[in-house]
Amino acid sequence: MSNIQESELILNPDGSVYHLNLKPENIAHDIIFVGDQDRVAKITSYFDSIEFSTQKREFKTQTGTYKGKRITVMSTGIGPDNIDIVMNELDALVNIDLQTRLPKENLTSLNIIRVGTSGSLHTDIPVDSIVMSEFALGLDNMLRSYEVSKVTDSALEDAFINHTSWDIRKGRPYAVRGSKVLQELLYTPDIHKGITATAGGFYGPQGRVLRLGIQDSSLNSKMDSFNFNSNRVTNLEMETAAIYGLSALLGHNALSMNAIIANRASGTFSADPYAAVNNLISYTLDKIAQ
User: Cα angle vertex 248, ends 245, 252, to 5°?
Assistant: First the structure.
């Protein structure tokens, strides 16, 4: 096997991966993803100690210890394109020898948990609740740049395409299941489960209309009524499907936990979104520490 060229795996002068500015020793086996860089410090404020901290662009990383468990918290920024950067560079840190530029013989599987905010599509999933993404449905088309057939659920994809009369010119949606191992670790009966839809943008791709008309003004209502083997689309955001898809392809465990701060069906917004996020942070950290 030939080594990976410098133009493909770019390293900084200090040997760290290009965008994340990290070396292998800087990250833990258990990693929490957040979108907002300011939320990194909010999570690590719960830690007993912090051993490492760095930031480059929107990618901020802190590694420390919570109740004896070493954990890394990292901001990904917004959108599937950023997830493509983060996932590939994280995998390189643990599964490529950065000196020889060769993949390692013994591969490492990371545990990656996204702690994010989201909007619910159903009135019975109220603001301030928690949604666990059992499946993710990518509407963004990023993952289609890879060979994805071995990790995607074509039956779910076909059902969604037929139900929504999806315009295939936007690309074929992709469906990926979250880690069963992490679902067992983090689930409790008061948590909602379902399919999280990942959009490639915030406005038109999520059905918001300001001054521009959109291709399918009824897409959100179609998603609201979609059901596949008793699984429905519970919420809409911008990262989960990309995380699930790349994690599955690269051999990592990934799960998305969402604090619901808006309900698109009822038009309501949390009276205290910060409390909702803090509740999810505490819950997730305690489950990881177990």
Answer: 120
Containing H/E element for 288? Answer: helix 273-289
15 torsion bin: left (phi>0), alpha (psi -120 to 50), beta (else): left
Report the predicted TM-score, pTM, of the whole model to 2 decimal places: 0.95
Rounded Cα gap, residues 84 and 239, in angstroms: 10
pLDDT band at 2 (very low <50, low <70, confident <90, very high): confident
Q: Which residues contact 88 (CB under 8 A, 6 or more apart)?
A: 246, 250
- Domains for the chain: give ranges and CATH numbers: 24-289 (3.40.50.1580)
Q: Which residue has the tokens 């209502």?
A: 221
Q: Using alpha carbons only, what angle is made at residue 158 by residues 136 and 244, rounded to the nearest 5 degrees?
A: 20
Q: What distance in Å separates the CA atoms of residue 275 and residue 260, rounded to the nearest whole number?
A: 11
Reading the block at residue 285, the tokens are 């950290």
